[in-house]
């Protein structure tokens, strides 16, 4: 099974002699490809090795180039949003973390002189297509370091095409969620919303959200388990989180017509829907 | 006009002798009410004055209690999600910042010994209803400090009702957006999605998202102006940002059937939709 996120005993800064050592430690399983992942599961890891002329590394922000269309280290054709490129796009829409490793061939002050340095977890913030230096279209990904992995500085600012709005560093209490459990819920429902049946189409495949019924945040303290999650489209997620509707014990909806779509495998904890009813639609 | 966010020359830590001085500086216009706002516009400011027994102040996280249902400083009736309580809920769904001021009567180590201390901008992260210490239902709001305003410590952790998932501080490059322009676009379209016509119903009123056509983030550098925004439902926002559809120069949709709903007041910049077409759906 593909492992997303942290690997036990692995810390940002850990160094490895070779791609084989990196694979053996479970950081980046493939020994040649720069992207580890599949188009249905998402990407779990990348290695920056200087292979793509369009890569830009600002430390905590990396503009990464997809794979394909190369011959003898030169871009000779357009890249497609398939295979491992699609895997990186999938990681964006699933919100999955990606392990990032810098290799000695990657020309950057954060790269090791020899071997490979694991640099922590990043999230894909955006993906798009543009004409690269070669004149061929390449897929590009904006990766942002998770705070734990952040170097706490940027090597210069990423370039901006026009007067960019002012930026500032912002800190939020992000809850460490169980990626696998959210993926389970979405897969059991084939990404179809349990309210309206809709699955959202994107260029990276179907999109759905795993919504917590009793919120995880303080003071609610809901657990991060499948029984406390629903598979929802973004519209019904916003409504559910903001008192637009709630759910009765028999799974009929309150506030809007209909009934929650259920599948045998996904047990919904009645105490969680009671918590939601009590806290999000009372007196509203 | 109600002013959301920063006030010129006002810095977190600035102190004021009285509520009148606070009002005169534009920090918190009403001289008695703890919440400044209206239910249609949202709330722009709160003052913590020790008036509500259920308030909990952890520094960068505040669990704030709504207003109403009090007599002689005691909670004697349930609170409703109306008026200023609804204003705070509205600020959550509009993503509006709230100025927070601590008063000398608010028992907390961050409060001043006398007068009032402005403590910076917070965002409403969640709102819900619960039985307060009095036995009556009160509305509660989880406020989280914006990084610039954060004290960089929490006074203890907010209580959790069950084994909470591990938390960590996470840093993201948040772009300072022009709140008023996003509000303008949503109001011109009466919160109806320009693709499907839907306006999302919540207990805090209608919800819509102002979506940037050419993204603000590097390297795209789109401008934060109305001509570069669409009023979308969350579903069509996710699709638009992830290559699910794009828009032709005549405003017909590409990838899904239909045409962008337009209003005379809202001019859509053709160069922004061209940027989107070129970068988000090519080769996908």
Can you describe this structure in just a few lines?
The structure is a homodimer of 284-residue chains. The first copy, chain A, has 284 residues and is an alpha+beta fold.
What does this structure look like?
2 copies of one chain form a homodimer. Chain A has 284 residues and is α+β, with helices and mostly antiparallel strands. Chain A has 2 domains: 15-149, PUA domain-like (Roll); 179-280, no CATH class. Chain A is built from 5 helices and 17 strands. Chain A has helices at residues 19-24, 83-94, 179-188, 234-241, 270-280, and strands at 15-16, 35-38, 42-48, 56-57, 61-65, 70-71, 74-75, 97-103, 116-131, 137-145, 167-175, 200-202, 205-207, 209-212, 229-232, 246-247, 253-254. In chain A, strands 1, 2, 3, 4, 5, 8, 9 and 10 form an 8-stranded mixed beta sheet that branches. A two-stranded antiparallel ribbon of chain A has the order 6-7. In chain A, strands 12-13 form a two-stranded antiparallel ribbon. The longest helix of chain A has 12 residues, at 83-94. The radius of gyration of chain A is 21 Å and the shape is elongated. The first copy, chain A, starts with 14 loop residues before the first strand and ends with a helix. The model of chain A is unreliable at 159-175 (pLDDT under 50).
